[in-house]
Write a structure and sequence with these properties.
Keywords: Hydrolase, Metal-binding, Zinc. The protein is α/β, with parallel strands linked by helices and 187 residues long. Helices cover 42% and strands 16% of the residues. The structure holds zinc ion. Zinc ion binds next to α5.
């Protein structure tokens, strides 16, 4: 069976990763760890998110969770059943600047997202290959029940840009200190 691989996907993934990087920059400006993402459906951005851990004082408010909530809330309000929500997610693609952590990677598998593209690897907590490979699920039915349905995943999309934002963040020193993120230099 021949499968047509869309080679223009390179351009497309860079376009959406650019939007995700924009979200990460907004996080950086808000003194948050700069990670950002967008979710697309049929080539249209339908949600975006950025890390808001400090703002919300909640360590799980990762960019992915913010974007997921932006969708699930209204879908449920519209009366979509869990299976209809799953149906919508199965058409969605996530672009995120840093490899999803174990929690987010596993949530994405349960939600049944179609594909995930990420920028740089997350060596400490990455759930899409770095620490665990939660996007991979065997065809074993019981494993699917335990781990969700898995998804296609590809990393290294505009990774340098994502890394340079992290560098900016860590070069600021203590991000929670009450000071502007770009110190005023007086000479
Ligand atoms: Zn996460």
């Amino acid at each position: 069976m021949a499968s047509l691989v869309k080679e223009d996907h390179f351009e497309e993934s860079h376009k959406y990763m650019g939007f995700a990087l924009h979200q990460a920059k907004l996080a950086l400006e808000a003194l948050e760890v700069p990670a950002g993402c967008v979710i697309t459906e049929d080539g249209k951005v339908i949600a975006s998110g950025r890390n808001r851990r400090n703002e919300t004082r909640n360590a799980t408010r990762h960019a992915e969770m913010e974007a997921i909530d932006e969708l699930v809330g209204p879908w449920r309000k519209d009366g979509l059943s869990p299976s209809q929500v799953a149906e919508r997610f199965s058409k969605c693609v996530l672009y995120v600047t840093c490899e999803p952590c174990i929690i987010c990677a596993s949530a994405l598998s349960f939600l049944g997202i179609k594909e995930v593209y990420y920028g740089c690897a997350n060596d400490k907590f990455g759930g899409c290959g770095s620490v665990l490979s939660l996007h991979l699920v065997s065809s074993d039915i019981s494993e699917k029940t335990q781990r969700g349905k898995g998804y296609k995943c590809r990393g290294g999309i505009m990774a340098d840009e994502a890394v340079s934002l992290f560098k900016c963040f860590y070069e600021q020193g203590n991000p929670n200190a009450p000071k502007p993120h770009r110190p005023v230099v007086q000479r």
